[in-house]
């Protein structure tokens, strides 16, 4: 009886151990995979695109007059207002030209006075000759000659006045060029570059000489981004945006879309948009890299999965999905935007599917796999 009781107790346990061993042996041969849920982002989402901060207004300041730098008043980082003097130039050649032009103007004025005096004499003479001709005391020829000389005198006065006006304009032009020896700021902003020093020779105009300063208006700033075609219809003037820079972790700056290109770049299929952001405190600097967040709507739900989950092969693009029986199903999908870590699936997934994070080679439909926690090394 004892032997029968022992066998009744031992044999079921022996069979169970054998079955567990078989299951363990079979599981040891199954591929070990980690899974993660596919996350649906619905029809509205926040688009994050990279961009760069630039000044709303920026210019290179050139000299309008040629000369030497006598003194400069601002250096890089200086805040200036429109009309502030940035530098003074010595313009010896222009000064000489102004003196010469003024001397020439004095000559023209003297010539005008002489022409007016001569004309007055000729007019008086002509009137007298006409009176004598009426009394038949002189011939017609003498009267005509006096009248002709009077007309010549009037023409000489008009010509002299024209010479004076032209010379006065020349003097004003040269005086204005001398005034350009005071280089002023065209608008309010910050000096970001200085290219001159005392004694530097500068030439007038951008075509002939180098710039003196670089000036940028840093409040507000503008972020320029490229929006993918899928989201372009959602971007227009007035859309609110958020700007994040890595120097200010956890902070965002409010901005507004002010302009869009109104057309896609045919090469990249993206829409250029400009976002204006206030910068009264001067915390943001032109040239900074920024992430711009824009609210966008999509025509179909977007599902996000790890980039490593996408299978590219000769048959197309697939995702390996695991069902409740731990069997693999290869789903044909259409991938969208890939940021290097996650990829958006625009067709093929609904969200919630159990997706294999890093599918091993050779997976086929119906393959049974062994699930491991996400982050554990697969077999």
SSE layout:
Elements (H helix, E strand, L loop, with lengths): L1 H28 L2 E6 L1 E2 L3 E18 L5 E6 L6 E2 L4 E6 L1 H43 L5 H40 L2 E3 L4 E6 L6 E2 L10 E16 L11 E5 L8 E13 L4 E8 L11 E9 L5 E4 L3 E4 L2 E7 L5 E5 L1 E5 L3 E6 L6 E3 L13 E3 L7
Parallel strand pairs: 1-22
Antiparallel strand pairs: 1-21, 2-15, 3-10, 3-14, 4-6, 4-9, 5-8, 6-7, 8-10, 10-13, 11-12, 11-14, 12-13, 15-20, 16-17, 17-18, 19-20
Helix pairs in contact: 2-3
Provide the structure class: alpha+beta
Low-confidence stretches: none
The CATH topology of the domain at 46-55 and 218-297? Elongation Factor Tu (Ef-tu), domain 3
Helical fraction equals: 25-40%
CATH architecture of the domain at 46-55 and 218-297: Beta Barrel
CATH uppermost class of the domain at 46-55 and 218-297: Mainly Beta
Strand order of the largest sheet: 3-10-13-12-11-14
Number of continuous helical runs: 3
CATH H-tier superfamily of the domain at 46-55 and 218-297: Efflux pump adaptor protein, beta barrel domain
- Order of H and E elements: HEEEEEEHHEEEEEEEEEEEEEEEE
Average pLDDT, rounded to a whole number, is: 84
In percent terms, what proportion of residues is strand? 35-45%
Number of strands: 22
Distance between the termini: 50 Å
Taking the sheet with the most strands, its summary is: 6 strands, antiparallel, barrel
Shape summary: elongated
Please compute the radius of gyration using only Cα atoms: 44 Å
């Amino acid at each position: 009886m004892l032997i029968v009781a022992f066998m009744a107790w031992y044999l079921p346990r022996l069979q169970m151990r054998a079955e567990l061993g078989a299951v363990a042996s079979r599981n040891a041969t199954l591929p070990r995979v980690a899974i993660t849920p596919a996350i649906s982002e619905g029809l509205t989402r926040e688009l994050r695109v990279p961009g760069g901060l630039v000044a709303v207004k920026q210019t290179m300041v050139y000299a309008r007059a040629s000369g030497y730098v006598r003194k400069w008043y601002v250096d890089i980082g200086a805040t200036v207002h429109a009309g502030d003097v940035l530098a003074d130039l010595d313009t010896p050649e222009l000064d000489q030209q102004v003196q010469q032009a003024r001397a020439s103007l004095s000559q023209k004025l003297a010539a005008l006075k002489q022409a007016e005096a001569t004309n007055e004499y000729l007019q008086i003479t002509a009137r007298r000759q006409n009176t004598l001709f009426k009394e038949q005391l002189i011939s017609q020829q003498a009267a005509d000659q006096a009248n002709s000389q009077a007309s010549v005198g009037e023409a000489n006065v008009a010509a002299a006045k024209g010479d004076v006006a032209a010379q006065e304009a020349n003097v004003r032009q040269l005086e204005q060029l001398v005034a350009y020896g005071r280089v002023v700021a065209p608008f309010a902003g910050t000096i970001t570059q200085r290219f001159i020093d005392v004694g530097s020779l500068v030439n007038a105009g951008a075509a002939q000489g180098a710039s003196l300063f670089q000036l940028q208006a840093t409040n507000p700033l503008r972020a320029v981004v490229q929006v993918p075609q899928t989201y372009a219809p959602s971007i227009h003037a007035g859309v609110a945006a958020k700007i994040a820079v890595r120097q200010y972790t956890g902070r965002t700056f409010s901005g507004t879309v002010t302009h869009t290109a109104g057309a896609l770049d045919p090469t990249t299929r993206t829409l250029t948009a400009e976002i204006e952001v206030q910068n009264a405190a001067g915390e943001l600097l032109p040239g900074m890299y920024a992430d711009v967040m824009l609210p966008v709507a999509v025509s179909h739900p977007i599902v996000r999965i790890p980039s490593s989950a996408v299978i590219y092969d000769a048959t197309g693009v697939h995702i390996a999905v695991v069902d409740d029986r731990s069997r693999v199903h290869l789903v044909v999908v259409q991938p969208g935007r890939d940021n290097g870590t996650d990829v958006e699936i625009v067709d093929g997934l609904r969200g919630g599917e159990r997706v294999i994070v890093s599918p091993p080679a050779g997976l086929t439909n119906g393959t049974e796999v062994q699930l491991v926690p996400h982050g554990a090394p697969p077999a």
